[in-house]
Design brief:
The protein is 40% helix and 13% strand. It is an alpha+beta fold. It binds zinc ion. This is Class II aldolase/adducin family protein.
C-alpha cells in the first residue's frame, strides 16, 4: 500500500484535477460521508498548489470545477471562486506540507466512523475491503474545529504516517497518494466503521486477524479496483445530480 499504482500514468493537468476535486466531493456527499462541513483537497503535482472543495453552505452534490479554491501550501488563497472558505482549510495545507507523498486529503464528517470515536472504540478492520486499516487508526483527542496553525500541526502529528486519523467527537481525516487512493480509503473507512458499529450492536465485532488483514489489503488494493470504484460512484453522483436528488438518502 506504499507506492502509488498510478505513478506510471501521465501527470494530470490542474484543470483535470479541479474536475476530480469537484467529483470527489460529490461522490463523498452521495455516500453521506462529507456532510455539510467536510471537504477534500488534491495537490497539483510538482507544485505547492492545493485544490480545495468549498465550505459549508455549498451544495456538496453539485460542485463544479469552477467552485474549487486554490490555496498555496503555506495557506495563502491563490484563487477564490466566491463561495464560503472551508473553515478548516489548515487541515489540508498542514498535511500536504508534512506528507509530501500524499496527493489528496479528505476531511469527513461521517456518521459511523465518528460514532466509534465518541464511543472510545478504536477503528479496526472487520471486513475484506477495510483490511487496509490494519496499520492502525490513531485518535486526535480533541473535538474542536481546526482553525489555527497549532491545532493543524497537532492533528497532523496525530495522523503521523498513518492513512487515517479519528477526530474524537468531530470527524476524521483520510489521506492518499492519489485522489483515487484517498477516495478508496475514505469509502471503505466509513463502510468498515458502519459494519463495526452494527456488529458491536449484535454483540461484538470480530476484527480480521493480522495475517488475514495483510493478505486482504494486498488483494483488494489494485489500480483496477481504484478505477472501478471511482467510475461507479461518479456515475451514481452524476445521475443523482441529473435527477435533482443530490442529497444522500440517509439525510
Ligand atoms: Zn470538521
Amino acid at each position: 500500500m506504499q507506492a502509488s499504482p498510478t505513478a506510471a500514468e501521465p501527470i494530470e493537468t490542474e484543470a483535470e484535477l479541479r474536475g476530480k476535486t469537484a467529483t470527489m466531493c460529490m461522490m463523498l456527499n452521495l455516500q453521506g460521508s462529507i456532510g455539510m462541513f467536510g471537504h477534500v483537497s488534491i495537490r497539483v503535482p510538482d507544485t505547492d498548489r492545493i485544490l480545495l472543495s468549498p465550505g459549508a453552505g455549498s451544495e456538496k452534490g453539485a460542485i463544479r470545477p469552477e467552485d474549487v479554491f486554490v490555496f498555496d501550501i503555506h495557506g495563502e488563497i491563490l484563487e477564490h471562486p466566491g463561495g464560503e472558505i472551508p473553515l478548516e482549510w489548515r487541515i489540508h495545507t498542514q498535511i500536504h506540507r508534512d506528507r509530501p507523498e500524499i496527493m489528496s486529503v479528505t476531511h469527513l464528517h461521517a456518521q459511523h466512523s465518528t460514532l466509534l470515536g465518541i464511543a472510545g472504540r478504536p477503528i479496526v478492520p472487520v471486513f475484506l475491503h477495510g483490511a487496509f486499516l490494519h496499520t492502525g487508526v490513531p485518535v486526535w483527542d480533541d473535538p474542536r474545529l481546526v482553525v489555527n496553525d497549532a491545532q493543524a500541526a497537532s492533528l497532523s502529528a496525530a495522523l503521523g504516517k498513518n492513512v487515517a486519523v479519528q477526530q474524537r467527537g468531530h470527524g476524521s481525516v483520510v489521506v492518499g497518494e492519489s485522489a483515487e487512493i484517498a477516495f478508496f480509503r475514505s469509502t471503505f473507512f466509513e463502510e468498515n466503521a458502519r459494519k463495526q458499529v452494527e456488529a458491536e450492536i449484535l454483540g461484538g465485532a470480530l476484527p480480521l486477524k493480522p495475517e488475514e488483514a495483510a493478505d486482504c489489503a494486498r488483494g483488494t488494493f489494485n489500480p483496477r479496483l481504484l478505477r472501478l470504484l471511482w467510475g461507479y460512484y461518479e456515475r451514481k453522483a452524476r445521475q443523482a445530480l441529473a435527477n435533482n436528488t443530490p442529497m444522500p438518502e440517509s439525510w
